[in-house]
TrEMBL record:
It comes from the Eukaryota. Residues 113-295 form the Tyr recombinase domain. The lineage of its organism: Eukaryota, Metazoa, Ecdysozoa, Arthropoda, Hexapoda. Pfam families: Phage_integrase. GO terms for molecular function: DNA binding. This is Tyr recombinase domain-containing protein. The keyword Cell wall biogenesis/degradation does not apply. Keywords: DNA recombination, DNA-binding.
């Protein structure tokens, strides 16, 4: 399907360097999502075989996305494009980022697309929930809210948080976020006295016989049990907080809520571009910047 220039290049490479190059190629895909990339590439390859495609051209790729675009939303098309661009570059030495008609097509498909964004919890919502909700029922949700909001965390970051990631000091809590989606570890502090007290209370309820290091344990009627809280349950916490506060459309408060709420409230409090540049998380900087531009 592609040109044989990459094969010629490999033949001109000394055998010992050829093996090193092959090993390097296997590491080019991101390890966390490697299977997704390979699945996307296999899907495209199968389609090409079914259409008797012998050479990859812009028209071929454009036709593929046109067919896929009849049943897929714009965000899915862009995701597929990104993965396919990487895989074709690695496997076929084809650079589809140079396909201007394809770029124009994808941009046109995005024009009327409205991405679904989580609603945000305002500062007063957070204060009200922590103040009004009883600890017997809602302590775990309070701690998830506090840590998730203060760190602008994703639900998978909260799920994977370990006990040694939370350092409880007399006057602060220091939280380390291990490398996740952005491959950058982060550290943030919680200094609000009431919030520190709630985190300490939750940690002290941890059973001594817990056999794993996951920080968030299932909480029932004032007690923790060793079973860790799963990613779906953590993702439902914003919705359940909204239900408690009787906010409209609680289902709109999704697993991205804490991250968006943190960014939104920072912008509303007058966070500037210098503050954003000092953030270690690049995706959070991108989330914040448009909000500040609107001020």
């Amino acid at each position: 399907m592609g040109s044989n220039s990459d094969e010629i290049e490999m033949l001109c490479t000394p055998p010992e360097l050829r093996e090193i190059a092959k090993t390097a190629v296997t590491k080019l895909l991101p390890s966390k999502s490697k299977s997704k990339y390979e699945k996307e590439y296999d899907k495209f390859s199968t389609w090409c075989e079914s259409k008797n495609v012998t050479r990859i051209t812009e028209n071929i790729v454009l036709a593929y996305f046109e067919i896929m675009g009849q049943r897929k939303k714009a965000s899915t098309l862009w995701s597929s494009y990104s993965m396919l661009r990487t895989c074709l570059s690695i496997n076929k030495n084809v650079d589809i980022s140079k396909y201007l008609k394809l770029q124009a097509y994808l941009k046109r498909k995005s024009e009327n697309y409205e991405p679904k964004k989580s609603y945000v919890l305002e500062c007063e919502h957070i204060t009200q929930f922590i103040s009004d909700a009883d600890d017997i029922t809602f302590l775990a949700m309070k701690v998830i809210l506090i840590i998730g909001y203060c760190g602008a965390l994703r639900r998978d970051e909260l799920t994977k948080m370990a006990l040694n990631d939370v350092d409880l000091k007399p006057d602060m809590v220091i939280v380390t976020v291990p490398k996740t989606k952005t491959n950058i570890s982060r550290v943030f502090m919680i200094t609000e006295e009431t919030w520190i007290t709630l985190i300490r209370k939750y940690i002290e309820l941890r059973p001594s016989y817990t056999s794993h290091q996951r920080f968030f344990l299932t909480y029932r009627r004032g007690k923790c049990i060793p079973s860790p809280i799963g990613i779906n349950k953590i993702g439902e916490v914003p919705k359940n907080i909204a239900k408690f506060l009787k906010l409209p459309n609680p289902e709109k408060y999704t697993g991205h809520c804490f991250r968006r709420s943190s960014a939104s409230n920072l912008a509303n409090k007058g966070g500037d571009l210098l503050t954003i540049k000092n953030l270690q998380d690049g995706s959070l900087r991108r989330l914040l910047s448009p909000m500040l531009m609107l001020q």
